[in-house]
Amino acid sequence: MYVLAMQIDLHIGHARSLKDKRGVLRSILDGARGRFHVAAAEVDHQQLWQRTSLGFAAVSGTQQHTTEVIDQVSRFVWSFPEVEVLQEERTWLS
Q1: Considering the entire predicted model, what is its pTM?
Q2: What is the number of domains present in the chain?
């Protein structure tokens, strides 16, 4: 079993309230869960309007498939024009 976790720090420049921020996050998190069947959550900066950190995790029987799934999630997050990716970090879990 292979488990790969990814944390992505984002800046949401147009957000003027937590409600604005949550609207963007809902699209990203629900989209990633539905399309790629990964665990997804906001993991830091919950009370800041324009900043967030999202966590994703994929589990698979092969290292290659796990990497491919997380690569797809990364591309999906980068595809949102309303967010700026500040940092992306991946960690293999055992």
Answers
A1: 0.93
A2: 1
* Cα–Cα distance measured from residue 57 to residue 91, given in angstroms and rounded to the nearest whole number: 9
What are the helix (H) ranges across the chain?
18-36, 63-78
**pLDDT, tens digit (0-9, with 9 covering 90-100), for 31-69:** 999 999 999 999 999 899 999 999 999 999 999 999 999
Distance, in Å, from the CA atom of 11 to the CA atom of 80, rounded to the nearest integer, reads 11
Burial class of residue 68 (count of CB atoms within 10 Å of its CB; 0-12, 13-18, 19+)? middle
- In this model, does residue 94 exceed pLDDT 90? no
d(CA 79, CA 40) in angstroms, rounded, equals: 17
CA angle 46, 52, 54 (to 5 degrees): 100
Domain that holds residue 82: 2-93
Instruction: Identify the CATH number of the domain in which residue 55 sits.
Output: 3.30.70.1120
